[in-house]
Amino acid sequence: MNGADFRGISVHNFSEKILEQVVHFHVMKLDGGFFLWVGSAPVLSNLAVSLNSKYDSMPLSTLVMGDPSETTASSLAQRLAKRTEKQVFVSYSLPMSDSSLSLLVEGRIKKELELHPEHF
Amino acid sequence: MSEPIIRSKKTQREINGIPTEVVCTEFSNYIFVVLTQFGKIGTLVSVTPDSRSNDISTPPFSTKVLLGKDEPMTHVCAKNLAMFVSQEAGNRSVLLGLALKDSSIETIKEMKEVIKSCQVW
C-alpha cells in the first residue's frame, strides 16, 4: 500500500446536475486511498471507511461518524474500495431515502474514476 | 461545472527533518484537518467544544477517537492541535486525521503554525 510513486496529497473537485440539483464532489487523494465527500450543501454529516480484507472478497466497511441506520455512505465506500482496491473514506450528505439519486451519484463517481483515475 | 462549494488549502513542510503534509477543508459544521507524515489519514479524532463549558468542572473540549489507536497521547495531541482551530472557526467541531512519526512538543508547536498557514475558516 505504501506507494513509492505517491506524489503527495492532492485535491480534486467536480460537480454535476443530477435530478434537478447540483451535486458537488470533493476528492482528497492519499497514499493508498482517498477521501470522497458528496453533497449539495457544505455539511459533513457522516463518515464511512472501507478497506479490502484478505479474509473476505468484499471489503470491510464501517461508519465512524453519523447515523448508523443510514447505510448509503458505508455501502458506497465498500463498493468503491472493491473497485479501486484502496482504502476509501466516504461522506455522503444527500438525502439517503432517494435511491434513484444515489444510483446516479454513484454512476457519476464511476465515470470520474474512469476519466480521471489519477485524482483517486 | 460550478465553483466548488468545499474550500480547502494544503501545504507541505519539513518538520524536524520529516516531510509533513497538512490539508484543511471547511464544512459548515466541521473543519477537517489532515496532518500526516505518512500520506495517510491515520488516526481519526473528533474534537468538539462542549456546550456545557460554563461549568468549571467539565473540560471545554471533548475528544473522541473515531478510528485507530485510542491512547491518551492521541487525545493530548488532538486537543493541542485542534482547540485553536475550533475557537477561531466560531466553535465548530474539528475532525482531525493524525499520522505522525514524531509527536514531541516542539514538533506539535511547529505543526500548529503549519495548520495556521492553511486557514480556511
TrEMBL record, chain A:
Pfam families cross-referenced by the UniProt entry: PAC4
Single GO biological process annotation from the record: proteasome assembly
InterPro entries: PAC4
Protein name in UniProt: Proteasome assembly chaperone 4
Organism for this UniProt entry: Oryzias sinensis (Chinese medaka)
UniProtKB/TrEMBL annotation, chain B:
Gene Ontology biological-process entries: proteasome assembly
Pfam families in the record: PAC3
Parts of the chain that traverse the membrane: none
Highest taxon of source: Eukaryota
Name recorded for this polypeptide: Proteasome (prosome, macropain) assembly chaperone 3
